[in-house]
Amino acid sequence: MLNMITNFDNLCSELEKQELEAPNGVASPTTYAQLLAIYLYQNDLCNAKFLWKRIPPNIISSNPEIAAIWTVGQKLWKKDLAGTYQALAIYNWTEPISNIIRALEERVRERALNLIGRSYSSISHNTLVSMTGLSNEAIAQICKERKWELSEDGTTIKPIPPVQPTPLHTSSEDQLFKLTEFVTFLEN
């Protein structure tokens, strides 16, 4: 996943440069589509919205894929997870957009699962399906992988909060705080 993030970050910079250097200030439809999808992948909804406003209307009207990407963005903006998955599934994405869209869907789903794990002590199966866009079989697999408890009748799930990775190093503020505590302890 880290390699994908790096590649999308690099591609984003390259596409932004292409937009800036485009003849007459108008980039290609592919540039706009990829850049818009990457902003959504990065959860940079503000830049996505500003880009949407910059895309010339004739490019939008002649390229329905760009409008479909923006529909996904609108669902994300409204925090409509079920609508997001519907908008992602309804369009037949073309290359190279489809790679970004698949990564976006995985990222949205992973964020939703982490949110569910941190926020819910129990959740209905139907709500979990709606928030993840997964099938019943996939939900059962996710519960097994994450060690989430599924009720016997299969209607309720008890999530477990995700394990937060411990930082490899402490921040300067943390180190200063610990040093201050230590000095204060020695002075007493």
Proportion in helices = 55-70%
- Main β sheet profile: 3 strands, antiparallel
C-alpha Rg (nearest Å): 22 Å
Number of helices: 10
What sort of overall outline do the alpha carbons produce when their principal axes are compared? Answer: flat
Mean pLDDT: 89
Task: Name the poorly predicted regions.
Answer: none
The helix-and-strand class reads mainly alpha
Q: How are the strands ordered across the major sheet?
A: 1-3-2
The end-to-end distance, rounded to whole angstroms, is 50 Å
- SSE string: HHHHHHHEHHEEH
Number of strands: 3
Query: What proportion strand?
Result: under 5%
Account of the protein in words:
This protein is mostly helical. It is 70% helix and 4% strand. It has helices at 2-21, 29-41, 45-54, 57-62, 64-77, 81-90, 97-119, 125-132, 136-146, 172-187; strands at 123-124, 149-150, 156-158. It has a 3-stranded antiparallel β-sheet. α1 crosses α2 (29-41), α2 (29-41) packs antiparallel against α3 and α2 (29-41) runs parallel beside α7 (97-119). The longest helix is centred in the middle third of the chain and has 23 residues, at 97-119. The chain starts with a helix and ends with a helix. The model has no long low-confidence stretch (mean pLDDT 89).
